[in-house]
Amino acid sequence: MATVTRENIGLLTDKLTVTISKEDYFPSFEKTLKNYSKNASIPGFRKGMVPAGMIKKMYGPGIFTEEVIRNIEKGLNDYLVNEKLEIFARPLPLPNADFKPSMEAPADYSFEFEIGLKPGFELSLSKTKTTFYKVKATDAMVKEEVERLQNRFGKMTEPEAVSSDDHALNLTFEACDADGNVLEGGVKKYNSLLVKYFSEAYRPQLQGLKKDDTLVIVLKDAFDDKERNWVLSDLGLKEEDAVAHYKLTITKVGFIEKRELNEEFFKEAMPSKNITTKAEFRAEIEKDIQAYWDKQSSNQLQHHLYHVLLDDTKMELPEGFLKKWLSTQPDGNKQPKSPEQIEAEFPTFINQLKWTLISDKIINENQLRVTNEELKESFKQQIMGYFGNMNLAEGNMEWMDQYVEGLMKDEQQVDGAYRRIITEKVFNWAEGEVKREEKLISAEEFIKMNEEHQHQHH
């Protein structure tokens, strides 16, 4: 049986020396060699009649080395299991220039391995104060969503000429000079815009225009700041492009006739709801809007708790070992990582590692689990999301159950669903541990706060 000695060589870093004697590996070496003799097929000899000396000469050195290494690995793995060591990754073999196996002179062999030990640490959120920034669904939000649905389910017509701010224009944008001459090799983009997206001062220039009409614009003059930034982004242009000239060609004038607020419309817009009145329709929309903002607020709080747990949890890590381990992992081109690559990746790697340790501790100490029923329900919700407003509640739903069962057999799908659910449970636990104060803010304030936060973390 292999013997293992353990020596500390650094912060949370130990050296394991695994030693095996001839009695540990030589019997299995001889047994494997005999099996080769029985099964070897060599020209000129009948199967099983190859002289043992020839087999030993041909295959012996390789089999001998394999048996020595196999017994070393078995001794190492048995030790790790018996001692219940919490380690990172796999033990790293240390250089062993003295290893020169010889089946002619079998001896004791020792191998050294370096291991990185996982740290002990404490989690405490009981004194943490957090704010849940709540956005209330407003009448303006409800009105905007009602109109959006009326337009979405409305009937598209093609008026002859632009006569309303609600008309939609299919446009071709072409880079040109101030006189409208298209620049050779210049930008050519396509987009659709409502007339009301143009600045109020510019809209009169669009009135009366028809299909195939053209005009020359400068984006900075034609749009206010908010809409201009959106148009630049949508067209894939840069901020400096806002002062360039573009020739606009109208390829289509469209108008959406809004749907009336009646039962027929309610049924199409929300097929799974039995809505018959305007009040019920608005109430359902308000409920959906509130659910959306509550989810955004929860995401914002969870993001904050992630940083609290990551930044405030004190733990030591065997950084030397971890950098050595990273050096054994190939890069995207399947080449060894350079020291510069390792240093560049290390801060992100450490944060990911810390979060894994923290979340694993929360999961284990609070016995958080994901059941098959939860996985199936997650898949069902995912499928419902794919179909949007289609009324899947009607008719035979056996096909969905069969589809879900198929997903349950896909390891990659199950793993993804498990990670989403267990992460949600980890943050639900964290939310329950902190002292939470609720604060009402507007949607604009909430969006600005998140933008500033993202800017700080980039």
Strand content: 15-25%
Helix content: 40-55%
Separation of the first and last Cα atoms: 54 Å
CATH topology of the largest domain: Trigger factor, domain 2
H/E order of the elements?
EEHHEEEHEEEEHHEHHHHHHHEH
The first-level CATH class name of the largest domain:
Mainly Alpha
Secondary-structure blueprint:
Blueprint: E1 3-10, E2 13-20, H1 22-39, H2 52-83, E3 92-93, E4 109-116, E5 129-134, H3 139-152, E6 155-157, E7 168-176, E8 188-194, E9 214-218, H4 219-222, H5 225-235, E10 245-257, H6 263-269, H7 278-312, H8 319-327, H9 339-365, H10 372-387, H11 398-408, H12 411-433, E11 435-440, H13 443-456
Parallel strand pairs: 5-11
Antiparallel strand pairs: 1-2, 2-4, 3-4, 6-10, 7-8, 7-10, 9-10
Helix pairs in contact: 1-2, 3-7, 7-12, 10-11, 10-12
What does this structure look like?
This protein is of the alpha+beta class and 458 residues long. The protein has three domains: 3-116, 2-Layer Sandwich (Alpha-Beta Plaits), CATH 3.30.70.1050; 155-257, Roll (Chitinase A, domain 3), CATH 3.10.50; 285-456, Trigger factor, domain 2. Helix content is 48%, strand content 16%. The protein contains 13 helices and eleven strands. It has helices spanning 22-39, 52-83, 139-152, 219-222, 225-235, 263-269, 278-312, 319-327, 339-365, 372-387, 398-408, 411-433, 443-456; strands at residues 3-10, 13-20, 92-93, 109-116, 129-134, 155-157, 168-176, 188-194, 214-218, 245-257, 435-440. Strands 6, 7, 8, 9 and 10 form a five-stranded antiparallel beta sheet that branches. The protein has a four-stranded antiparallel beta sheet with strand order 1-2-4-3. A hairpin with a 2-residue loop joins β1 and β2. α10 (372-387) crosses α12. The radius of gyration is 34 Å and the shape is elongated. The two termini are 54 Å apart.
